[in-house]
Amino acid sequence: MGYIDLKNATIYYETFGVENKETIVLVSGLNTQMTRWEAPFLKMLSEEGFRVICFDNRDCGKSTFKTSDPNDTINFSLNDFLQHPEKYPVPYSLLDMADDIKDLLHSLAIRSAHIVGRSMGGIIAQLFASRYPAMTQTLNLLMSSSFNPALPKADDALIGKMTNSTANFHDNKQAHINEKVDFMKAIYGNKYNFNEEKERWLIIEDESRKSPFVRPFRQMIALLSYQYDSNVLSSLHVPTLTIHGDEDPLFNMEHAVDLKNTIPYCELIIKRGMGHAIPDSLFPSLAKDISNFIAKTG
């Protein structure tokens, strides 16, 4: 574990497994800490023979973004941003976040790796693979999207649950946790049992390890400012696997089919009953899916 200092960010990372094995890099989603790649899943990937690297994206968890912008502490409103984006300068882009992966690998003297991205992390992974194909052995996209604006969008009420938290953890701990739990229930999928007790523990753990300097709205601006470019997908000439749940309410199945049809060498695995989360009971099959795909493309 450790930190790497970049020009305008500090990235926290941890490694699991044996150093001389092939490397998997796990890229988290929007405002999602590396802790959401849960320990049993990391252990399963390690037991498949991989060295696994987890990290917090900039502005999340223990990773921070450095800025001298006097508007840095602006009170972000999603609705206001969508109506008046000119009021919110883009502090960094998803391409900058993709470069963080490159810098992390360089700092660890790793020439190439298997990249696994979930949700927004999958978009960052696509950009990384497009920009640095020689560093990308395989690309693995979990419950992700190309962010093509022509694809179906999530329900406004669900987006509201995700972005418009009304309770601050330090001011009203229980209300904050309840809001987070309600959102997770809404995206979980109907086939798998939702462990509310574990989710509440994870929320508290995330809050306890989060740097006071992170600003979640900056990741939101980076995502919503992303300009979809079909050339990014069509230029991906690395073996690609997309794994998607057929009950994903944020990125429905059309997003997965779009990835499958647009990326030249892409396979699709559908997880029945999975939403926009990874249930514990799917850890073994996901680890095997990724391991088997890497093995057959090596």
Structure description:
The protein has a single domain, classed as Alpha/Beta hydrolase fold, catalytic domain (Rossmann fold). It is built from 11 helices and 9 strands. The two termini are 28 Å apart. With 298 residues, it is an alpha/beta fold. Strands 1, 2, 3, 4, 5, 6, 7, 8 and 9 form a 9-stranded mixed beta sheet that branches. The radius of gyration is 18 Å and the shape is globular. The model has no long low-confidence stretch (mean pLDDT 93). Helix content is 39%, strand content 17%. Helix 1 runs parallel beside helix 11 and helix 3 crosses helix 4.
CATH architecture: 3-Layer(aba) Sandwich
Low-confidence stretches: none
Distance between the termini: 28 Å
- The total count of strands amounts to 9
The percent of residues in helical segments reads: 25-40%
Q: Enumerate how many helices there are, as a single number.
A: 11
Average pLDDT: 93
How are the elements arranged and paired?
Layout (H helix, E strand, L loop, with lengths): L1 E4 L3 E8 L5 E6 L11 H9 L2 E6 L8 E2 L12 H6 L10 H14 L5 E6 L1 H12 L4 E7 L13 H8 L9 H15 L8 H14 L6 H9 L5 H5 L5 E6 L7 H10 L3 E6 L11 H15 L1
